[in-house]
Amino acid sequence: MSYTELTVWTRGIIMDKEGRDIVNSISASARLEGKFAQAMENYVDNPDRTNAPTRKYCRVSDGVIENELTYENEQPNIVVLVEGTMVKGWDYMRGMPPGGTLVINTHYAPEYMIRFVPGAERLAQLVCVDAAKLADHKWLYYRLGELGLDRLSTEGAAERNKAIAPDIAAPLIAAVVKTTGVVKMETIEPMIANKKAFHMALDELHIMPLNPVAV
Amino acid sequence: MAAVTEAKKRTVRINGCVAAAQAAKYADVDVIAAYPIRPYTATMMALAQMVANGELDAEYIVADSEHSQLSISHGASSSGARVFTGSSGVGVQFAYELYSPISGSRMPVQMMIADRTLDPPGDFGSEHTDALSTRDMGWLMGWSCDAQEAFDNHLMAYRIGEDPRVLLPQMVCQDGFFVSHITSDVELPDPGQVKEFLPPYKHPYPLDPRHPVSHGPQIMPEQGPPLQLERARAMEESMAVIEQVHDEFANIFGRRYDPWVEEFMTDDAEVVFFMQGAHAVTARFAIQHMRDRGLKVGLVRLRTIRPYPTDRVKEILSKFKVVGVIETNMGLGSVSSGGSLYAEACAALYESQQRPLVVSFMAGMGGEAIVLKEFYWMTQKMIDAQKRGKIEKRTHWVGFEE
Fold it and tell me: pTM to 2 decimals?
């Protein structure tokens, strides 16, 4: 039986929706493909604060998900860092079984980033994608007013922008789906709002293959 | 007609909070009284957006506390409005003063509860104590175990509570996080079907200057008992209505729930869990695994605790050798010195000719998930009791013992 855990690390308020969009779109795609899937936010990270680290989870399985009610992904096979500086200081690799994938939103190359990754020997691949550039992301200070209205901690219930992945989530989803095949490209592509960034990312991934060892 | 309505239903992926908000929208509520507290907050955020977007025509009132929320609900319901409110944890407690007046004046206010532990420890996790502590205040009360059931329970509760034979407020409860924050498939019905099932609310004696009536006046002591008796009778008489409404719901929407209990693998079971709420989801998986190992274990999940289905619980639980009550609530210094569900199970069984052994498990406290191996551990305790012919002790704190 195939069972995959995906954990997204992102930053509260300013990039919280991006994190949610990644897990929601992948779990919805998996459901469309007839798999069992679940998406949720880390319960104690919410209500989120600006820039504070928040985690989003997705579980995809061929069979029923018996650990549906557990709070956290204990063995993430795929980890996504929505904001590049999170590579330092957080234990995002904890529990990853050998053969995992780490996707980072960064303009740096994997060869540079890998030095900051704790437990990198478990990785089968490190994927870097300059999602902010591809999506022409406007950072917090350019749009504080908009974010303040639109992104008060919502717990996903009441976002004004209903579009899925209009921003940096699009290239990150492209990176995850292309490098892991957790869902099919043709299932998820129609859901993505920022199709331009999604397609550009497919050709602009920096993939570093690695030989995972058990730790 | 049926073919048309079939076409308009759709399946969405939402969590329990949003499912409750959707149910309020489908019920076309008139007044919403909101005050935020995790984990139910997202319900009110979703409703605020629906009202702002024009999807729902309702008066949305942001109260200054839970006490005000329930006061607003009481007043709005008295005027004949269909009212939706909600809370969690200590918020449920802060509104306590209003529970008896609302049921006492027979106002069918609906309150959504997403459980949260009371302080301490002040965390967000689900314990049923918040709502359960109000269980004898004259509110209909029951737990769902997933978002779809939560949606359905909200619709059914309005229909039951507003029935002229009942006229009682309803607490529609779901576990915080385990239901409120986990996204799953929810089938939203055709609005036409909902209209058919839940006609517009009409209170028989609303506050109306053209037809003056008094609600909740000061009365003499001897006038109290008849009112209490009427409220008690309404609670009793609601049982027939609850069964009828569940039948009608099944006929219209195609989902049939036993109004009182869900039985899972109980046919030849010798030991069973007796519990409420979302942990039943994991219990079912655990039971299937234990069945594979030849253990005769089952599940009886209570769906409605007020009114309490005493005879049904007696009849069902009498079939087994050992009943393990999973509490997920605090009953400090209570009968079992554990939770309050134990006493409910035992009292129902007292009149039985064939009483099983009953043991109480304090599990899922503080909102901890009850994992498979804890269900295995509890089952072993029940099997040991069965072999021994008596329980080791009334209450086990799961995770604190070998």
Answer: 0.94
